[in-house]
Write a structure and sequence with these properties.
Layout (H helix, E strand, L loop, with lengths): L1 H12 L5 E3 L2 E3 L1 E9 L2 E12 L5 E9 L2 H5 L3 E11 L2 E13 L2 E8 L4 E4 L2 E5 L12 H10 L4 E7 L4 E10 L4 E6 L7 E8 L5 E9 L5 E10 L3
Antiparallel strand pairs: 1-2, 3-4, 3-16, 4-5, 5-6, 6-7, 7-8, 8-9, 9-10, 11-12, 12-13, 13-14, 14-15, 15-16
């Protein structure tokens, strides 16, 4: 089950996405329910804030609420601090820590140095001319780029040993929703879909992750407040 929760968060579905307007991101706080085959599993709270130096902080906290996730005290926190320049994310510092029962792990990524280090992870530095973002930040750019009119999106994402390009296609679901679909190789029997609200800065209202032979993982927006002071 925890592998499925990590698929939800790491592959794409850390899906809480701030509003994007006129080259800036609007602070917000949102809560989401996470279910496994329609059974409640966890709750995620995401906040985006900005300080007086125009540095942004995006923070996710996911806690188990039902079943095994609750019994083992599943708790995962991800925090990313970044700046914007020419509508691009720069100078990323990303931190993650996770606790499940008695097992703990954590890591830290510094984009200026292209290095990763942490508990349970062998430190490494990769050589790359790209500047990947953490999967934690994927929806930030998906939402922004969809609202800017892009219908095919490719984003370099930080993986365990090197950056990997993720591709997405955007479709008009109806008058109020976009549907974003991740493009997987044909050999991988899985799908990921995100539904974005056209009337709320392309904010995600639902996601669905399906893997052949495994339970469906679904995320639904519960509450959101924009422009926090």
């Amino acid at each position: 089950m925890f592998k499925l929760l990590m698929t939800l968060q790491i592959s794409l579905l850390c899906w809480l996405t701030p509003a994007y307007a006129e080259g800036s991101l609007s602070p917000f706080k949102a809560t989401y329910s996470i279910s496994r085959d329609d059974k409640p599993t966890a709750q995620q709270t995401t906040t985006l804030s900005i300080n007086d130096n125009n540095q942004y902080t995006l923070k996710d906290i996911t806690k188990g609420t039902n079943g095994l996730a609750s019994l083992t005290g599943f708790n995962r926190q991800e925090t990313t601090e970044f700046n914007l320049a020419n509508e691009q994310i720069i100078d990323i510092t990303h931190r993650m820590k996770q606790k499940v029962a008695f097992a703990k792990k954590s890591y830290r990524f510094e984009s200026k140095l292209n290095t990763i280090s942490g508990k349970g992870k062998k430190p490494f530095t990769f050589n790359s001319t790209t500047k990947p973002i953490s999967a934690h930040m994927l929806p930030l750019w998906i939402s922004a780029l969809v609202c800017q009119g892009q219908r095919f999106i490719e984003i370099d994402v930080l993986k365990s040993s090197q950056p990997k390009a993720y591709q997405f296609r955007v479709f008009d679901q109806d008058e109020s929703l976009f549907r974003v679909e991740r493009q997987y190789p044909a050999s991988r029997q899985r799908s990921t879909h995100i539904w974005l609200d056209k009337n709320r800065h392309c904010f995600p209202v639902r996601t669905l992750h399906q893997v052949n032979g495994e339970p469906d993982i679904e995320t639904k927006l519960k509450t959101v407040t924009f422009n926090l002071k």
